[in-house]
Amino acid sequence: MIKSKIRVNSEYVIGKTDSGMFGSFLEHVGRAIYNGIYDPKHPLADSMGFRKDVAEAVKELNISVIRYPGGNFVSGYNWEDGVGPIELRPKKLELAWNSVETNMVGTDEFCTYCKKIGSEPMLAVNLGTRGPDEARQLVEYCNSRAGTKYADMRIANGYKEPHNVKYWCLGNEMDGPWQIGRKTAYEYGRVAEESAKLMKLTDPSIKLIVCGSSSNLLPTHPDWEREVLELTYDSVDYISMHSYYENANGDTPSFVASNAQMEKFIQGVLASCDFVKAKKRSNKTMMISYDEWNIWYQFSRKQDVEPWQVAPHLFEDIYSMEDAVALGGLLITMMRHCDRIKLACLAQLVNVIAPIMTDDTGAMWKQTTFYPFMHASKYGRGTVLNTITNSETYDCIHGTVPYVESLCVFGEDESITVFVCNRSEEQDCDFDIILENAEEYSPESHIVMTAADKNMSNTAANPFNVVPTSVNDINGEKGTFNVKIPSFSWNVLRFTK
């Protein structure tokens, strides 16, 4: 059995988690939208065609913000194709994913869906094949009241009230060789700056996200962040980060420690941000929008799909207990940086590398990764404390990492939550919790998620193979507690007054 201990003091604060940290992403790719959130022929479809059972599962995740419509898709998207009477919308070749886009769902439907599920929309503008003028037109369409061309267009389409979209992404992954309209840092920085200018003149209340490098593995990072921010620093509010992780070669100990690689990426982006802040002698601190992150087997599970289909089966990864442990570590790392990461979007929401799945029979189920995200979204809103953690360690491709990763959040309801990942495949952990200045707190519950086999998954036929359970096994009193953390598990320890 391995040993680990966490010491918590409410006076040692990292920062508060913004609700925007618990967001997600919907792109026009595969079955994320069509046959995902939207299926007008399904018996559980509402009057607009959205599946009510999927919407209820999304509500369980308590998603704060949803990014849309891409992703790579947005760099070739004309937003006008997705508004107005559905029967008049054009079908078009969608070049990012070699599909046919029907445009049955567009800006108005998406914003309405966000209202239905209690989430806030985050819209991306096309800076691949389009530019500043089209971007400010979309802001006018979404946010302006009556009396101007694009506001009146929205009203004529049946949406009298503005959508009041607050968050806007200035393009997507513009340094990626795969990107439609790829640009150099200078080319992108200039068009982003001019787009930001026009968009904020149209609506000064909006918040803008400029594209960071698409990956810390690209040679453009971190110079891309520096050069783009030197051109846009005073006009934007966030810089984006995107990263995906997979166990491509069967190295489980390294895979479940992927958050160590995420940590290095965050540190690199923050260094670039703060360099530009110093260079500009600015009082403004640039924040991060981690608006694409997840487990994605994009290299080890490649698939051949017939091109030019409507809503083909793309990137429908089935996640295991191993993936849930890895995802828990990623969540802990992002929450630990809540002082700078203010927005984050799990990519994606339904079917495409997603926590929620549907199939062609109309079934719906929750993947293993659904539950760590749900727990973080439910219990991670509050003040993240700078804890002292001691754990035995092991060596992997990321260097020396702890077997046990943990984080403490002082909740808005004055509860205390400790999130714990045990990355050891063989050993349970004897885990001590020292809550300083909190002698009046008592254990409420220990939510634990583990499985007999790390490769176990949930499926349509067996949707409850791997689910969390609640146990009462936290021992101790007056601020000193002990609990056994099972091997290879995700855990949520709850304490209340």
Structural overview:
- Helices cover 24% and strands 27% of the residues.
- It has 497 residues and is an alpha/beta fold.
- The strands form six sheets. The protein has an eight-stranded parallel barrel with strand order 3-4-7-8-9-10-11-12, surrounded by six helices. A seven-stranded antiparallel β-sheet has the order 2-15-19-20-26-22-23, covered by helices on one side.
- Strand 13 (356-358) and strand 14 form a beta hairpin.
- The relative contact order is 0.16.
Strand content: 25-35%
**Basic shape:** globular
What's the end-to-end separation, in Å?
31 Å
Strand order of the largest sheet: 3-4-7-8-9-10-11-12
Q: Total helix count?
A: 10
- The stretches of 5 or more residues where confidence is low (pLDDT under 50) are none
Q: Give a quick account of the main beta sheet: strands, pairing sense, barrel closure.
A: 8 strands, parallel, barrel
Mean pLDDT: 97
Pairing-aware structural class of the strands and helices? alpha/beta
Helical content stands at 10-25%
Output the radius of gyration.
23 Å
Number of strands: 26
Topology:
Elements: E1 2-9, E2 13-16, E3 23-25, H1 52-60, E4 65-68, E5 92-94, E6 99-101, H2 107-117, E7 120-125, H3 132-143, H4 149-156, E8 167-170, H5 185-202, E9 207-210, H6 223-232, E10 238-245, H7 252-255, H8 259-279, E11 287-295, H9 321-336, E12 341-347, E13 356-358, E14 364-366, H10 370-379, E15 382-385, E16 388-391, E17 393-396, E18 399-402, E19 404-411, E20 416-422, E21 429-436, E22 442-449, E23 469-471, E24 475-477, E25 480-485, E26 489-496
Helix pairs in contact: 3-4, 3-5, 5-6, 6-8, 8-9, 9-10
